[in-house]
Amino acid sequence: MTGKSEVEAWMMSASLEELQEVVSTYNTALKLARERVAAVAKMSLSVDDEVHFISTRRGTVLNGTLTKLMRKNCLIQVGSSQWKVPLAQVKPGHIEVE
After folding, report:
1. Res. 6: pLDDT tops 70
2. What is the maximum alpha-carbon separation in the chain?
3. Distance (Å) of CA 33 to CA 38, 57, 75, 88
4. Would you state the torsion angle of the CA atoms of residues 14, 18, 25, 30, taken in this order, to the nearest 10 degrees?
5. What's the rounded mean pLDDT across residues 40-66?
6. What is the CB neighbour count within 10 angstroms for residue 52?
7. DSSP string, 45-66
8. pLDDT at 2
């Protein structure tokens, strides 16, 4: 494994094309990792399951009922509102909110 300082030194001397290639490779790896997380979540969840997720809008944990599974997202009924949430952010079970 290459040390952090070696990577930083390489980045400072790399050409624009080399840096663009690294960013492209990183973005592809990140996308594949997110797809794997979503696939695992999708296999462990089903409609009418009680789930929770952290709202990026409110910054709080929300509990709800899974109403629909889609390719990368799901719909969760939270009270009287429905949220479209990425599967990677959904966890099974309820969490007590203070």
Report:
1. yes
2. 55
3. 9, 24, 22, 10
4. 40
5. 90
6. 19
7. --TT-EEEEE-TTT-SEEEEEE
8. 65
